[in-house]
């Protein structure tokens, strides 16, 4: 009865080229996601405060100008109608 049992491992086919690409692509994607999550969680030192402050001011001025321009272009002049007598 013990002679009937076969304890050899099953044959696993060799992975194809596309399976290898998928396998390594998934690993690269996971590493990229970990790097992105760590970039969000870990703070970065800000050594150039004057450069970023000047940029923020310029950026807010541009946003205000864009909002004002968008508001003026969205207003259409009212159509004047003549009263019929």
Automatic annotation (TrEMBL):
Domain of life, per lineage: Eukaryota
Subcellular location field: Membrane
Amino acid composition bias (Basic residues), ranges on this chain: 75-85
Disordered: annotated segments: 64-85
GO cellular component, one term: membrane
Keywords: Membrane, Transmembrane, Transmembrane helix
Membrane topology, as annotated: Single-pass membrane protein
Pfam family, one: UPF0239
Membrane-spanning segments: 21-42
Family: Belongs to the UPF0239 family.
Protein name: Protein MANBAL
Organism: Eublepharis macularius
């Amino acid at each position: 009865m013990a002679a009937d049992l076969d304890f050899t491992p099953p044959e696993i086919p060799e992975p194809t080229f596309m399976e290898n690409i998928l396998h390594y692509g998934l690993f690269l994607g996971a590493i990229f996601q970990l790097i992105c999550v760590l970039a969000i969680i870990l703070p970065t030192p800000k050594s150039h405060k004057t450069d970023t402050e000047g940029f923020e001011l310029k950026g807010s001025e541009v946003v205000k100008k864009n909002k004002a321009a968008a508001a003026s272009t969205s207003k259409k002049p009212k159509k004047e109608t003549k009263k019929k007598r």
